From TrEMBL:
It comes from the Eukaryota. Its cofactor is Mn(2+). Pfam families: NAF (PF03822). The keyword Transferase applies. The keyword Kinase applies. InterPro entries: NAF/FISL_domain, NAF_dom. Keywords: ATP-binding, Kinase, Manganese, Nucleotide-binding, Serine/threonine-protein kinase, Transferase. This is non-specific serine/threonine protein kinase. Gene3D superfamilies: Kinase associated domain 1, KA1 (3.30.310.80). Belongs to the protein kinase superfamily. CAMK Ser/Thr protein kinase family. SNF1 subfamily. One of its GO terms (biological process) is signal transduction. Coiled coil: none annotated. Transmembrane segments: none annotated.
Amino acid sequence: MKLTWLSAFDIISLSPGFDLSSLFEKDKSHRSDARFTTQKSASTIVSRLEEVASMGSFKVKKKDGTVKMQGSKEGRKGQLAIDAEIFEITPAFHVVQVTKKSGDTAEYSLH
């Protein structure tokens, strides 16, 4: 997988204090984001995401640093879709941003 590199400006913009999305998005209630850092390799991160997806009966697609997971069951608000984007800070340090793209937020919180 080809990962996205983050510059110093990208890293600063990830800070909650610099989140300007409220200026551009009127309704953020449809999105749920989580972000974490890890020293695991990108292949280990992807493998773990695939393992978790298989436990939840998700279909997985990988492309350019993003793992897209689509639920196989129809939920209260449609199929749950989750994207996990992997950013490389250094070869040994990554940021993973997980975003609910569609489906029920309560169902997303359970996963």
